[in-house]
Each structure stands twice: as structure tokens, then as C-alpha cells.
Write a structure and sequence with these properties.
With 216 residues, this protein is α+β, with helices and mostly antiparallel strands. 37% of the residues lie in helices and 17% in strands. A hairpin with a 2-residue loop joins strand 5 and strand 6 (132-139). Helix 1 runs parallel beside helix 7 (191-199). The longest helix has 18 residues, at 144-161. It is globular, with a radius of gyration of 19 Å.
Length: 216
Amino acid sequence: MHGGGDDRSIAQDTTGSMILPAISEKRPEINLTPPWPRLDLRSEIMKRTGIDFVETRDIESLSKAMQECGIHVEPGSDWGRLLDKVISSEVEPNLIQPHFLIDYPVEMSPFAKRKPGSSDIVERFEAFVMGTELANAFTELNDPVDQRERFEQQERLREEFDNDEADRLDEDFLIAIEHGMPPTGGLGLGIDRLTMLVAGEESIREILLFPAMRNI
């Protein structure tokens, strides 16, 4: 997990430096030089809030811990959405310089392979700069039995919590995995966000080739 090969090339080619100059108080100097620090998600949440998501594995205990920290609890949220709220409000805003967040809980990563020796954590990381996610990557789950169980859990989230972001059970996908899926992984890079960062723009309209006429 090396610190930003794509980011390094784009920054170097665009600005001639791995250090992006400060633009304003909102955008300080950003040093993209690798390696980027890796932060264990569980440890980082505990550092910022005192909440241990391994010890608060149900909605009631996590909601209570959030309320004790003054974090808003959206009624009707499932466990994954609650933890995502903790991350987005208490962790991400502090990741101004480049960082990787690693080792996410399985509830937030329905297509990621479990970390060896762990039933709760998956092999996943996200890259952050200026409090914004630039990339999301994980080892793909290629166990059809495990994947079916996760699909079924996602369906339950749709029914119980009206979570329209939960994935639907995909029989064709499961059949394909049953035929055989080699070990693989993937990374999704936010090109628009990266371009905004390197160009020093605050609005995505400024870096789109054909921006919409309305505000974004």
C-alpha cells in the first residue's frame, strides 16, 4: 500500500512538485510525498472519541456511546450508518495531510474479503486529503457462501431500516463466483476530487469539461 503513485505523478506533472502550495486558510500547504501514514480505523476512532466499535457491535450500545460524545444519532439508522457518521464527523475532518484509513468493519464493506484471522475486519483502505476521500480500495470477496450471507444481510437492512443504499441480492453474480473467481482487488480513484486538489479549486464546476449550468 504505497503512498499515492497516481497522486504523485499528477502532482509532479502538473505543479513540478510533490508539495501543493497553500491557497488560503482553508487550503494549507499539502505534502503528497510518500509514504502516506496509515491509520487503523478502530484506533483512530478511539483516539478521537473513545468509542470502540469492536465493543459496541449493536445499535443500542453504539448509539449510546455516540450520544455521550455529543454526536448526533439519526433515528432509524442501522449500525453501519451510525459508524459512518462517527467517521465522517470525528475522523475525516482531521485528515488534512494525506493519510490512509485501513481495516474497516465488515458491515461497511459487503464486497470486501475478511482480514486473515478476523471475522469482523476486512482488507480495505481509503485515502484522504483535506478531509476528503480520494480513493477506496479493497481485496474482493471471492467466497460465494460468505457473499450470499452478506447479500442477505443487505436485504435485511433494506427491509428493517429502509436503507436504499444497501445492495440487492444478485444471483448472477453469485453464480459467477461459484464458477471460480481468482484472488483480486480494486481501487476506485476520485479523479475529479484529485484534480480539484492539485488545481486548488473548491468547486467541481471549475474542473469539469462540461459542467452543468446549475450549482454543484
